[in-house]
Design brief:
606 residues, alpha+beta, seven-stranded antiparallel β-sheet, 33 strands, 17% helix
Amino acid sequence: MKKIIFLLVTFTCVHAQNRNQDFNFDWKFKLQKDTTMPENLPMEDKNWRDVRLPHDWSVEFSFSENLEGCTGYLPGGVGAYQKHFDTPIDVSFQKAFVYFDGVYNNATFWLNGKKLGENPYGYSPTFFDLTDKLNTNGTENVLTVHVDHSRYADSRWFTGSGIYRNIKLIITPKLYIPIWGTYFTTPIAHGADAFVSAQTTIKNETSGETNFILVTEIYNSNNTKVTTTENTLKLGANEQQVITQKINVPNPDLWSIENPNMYYGISKIVSNDKTLDTYKTRFGFRKIAHIKDEGFFLNDKPTFVKGVCLHHDGGLVGAAVPKGVWKRRLQALKEAGVNAIRTSHNPFSEEFYDLCDEMGFLVQSEIFDEFDNPKDKRFNLNQREPDHITEGYTNHFQQWGESDLTRTMLRDRNHPSIFEWSIGNEIEWTYEHYKHVSGLWDPGVKSYWNRIPDLSPKEMKERYENLPDRKYKLTETAQKLANWTRELDDTRPVTANLIIPVASLASGYAQVLDIVGFSYQVKQYNWSKKHYPNLHFTGNENAGTWQEWNSMLEDPMVYSMYMWTGIDYLGEANQKWPQKGWHGDILDLAGFKKAGWDHFKSNLGK
């Protein structure tokens, strides 16, 4: 019997108050006439709008039938933001970073006219070191962000435009714990012998070798210190080191769906009896296990994953969703019996995962909707013909894919709510030969939808191997993504959402995953189990039919079902004007309960 078992205690990185400053206030904003990059920086902004971030400029416009339904009949465009601020540090012994949780999209960043960098993907977090570009002569600093969302139909759902997630200014000494610098796991997550394996990264950007003590304290939800440990260390100038500490925490209260108990750790760098840097980390102890033929276990308890898929918008508030809006919506889902969220089809905000930690939701965190080849944004298939305004992340994947995945996972890998990583959604549409491999599109076949294939696995494999050579092969790309994921976090399984699973099994794509997630196609479970008995299959996207729900009850291996979708969302409404979005099952666009709320609760609410 194949088992995939992960034991861990996971941490949500929340920097101590003296490190973080809210950087959302006092911004200037102006839409730009075209995609031309600014040349004279900083820009003259005296007549620009005052805005408080997060900010989504797309949702401020009126809906128009002349725009694209795939992104909700709202425009994109090009915008520029600037913030004026005094130098917040003494650069002789301190450092300053600016952290962006998400900017949609194709963002370029400058400080005082000097380029900091760029970030094309609208869903990945990024940060920049400001220290050597800050003014030290008493004049103010100007941070400039240029956002090019001129390809406004670059997705299959409403994306929003602009700096639509939070920004932080982070101040540290020159001997410090970097952003996302802690990673904690536990080989034993409960019992008298429970302990934390705490990995903490330390950077020394001083001019000389430094002696210091790393102190790590663990506190429970009552703010009572339960244990502490320390190491005396030495680090040379401009060196970085990862220190691992084994910290005993006897009889911890476990994090679970019913009781999401949270702890927090305080990591301190102490030198000459002075605390130089303090890093606060919230976390929860829990044990997860995915066992083929038995299902999913949370803290040794068999658990059905009764989930919904969600997009990241909040209805008429757009993509800049206030935390309170998400809390209200998640509470309504919880009351219906929902215990899991799939972030379709991209990473969500840091605030969203914090709420899932606190409220007791399991999260399958999905990272990409496209890899090598583009989807047709209007019809959710392979791209039919090139179109400038629909060009999306595929333009950047080859250069930025590993970086975007890495930054996302470093931010999120310590949330107790996240229990699976999904590397991609229905990617097979973009590799046209997968239809041929499956036989489900052969002449005379009426439908590919939920059909048992006529071809044998051997025949499909032969078709795949006889294909002409191609620039990109899905199996090879998926293997790279799975390897990158496991290098960053080996405590959770890797999955993906497969829309043509029989072809993915024949090609080897499914075999690079730990959990093979089906997108609908529930009738193919037994066929797949018969022909590929060593793999673990479950549902990653479902219509919410009784047949799908019953598949979990009849077969323990199929432990999950994610209904499409839990909440109405903007977009995916091509040629459906005046309909602006997709109708969900449980909550409407304003977050009010629909008939599907009762349906879900009556079937899966217990």
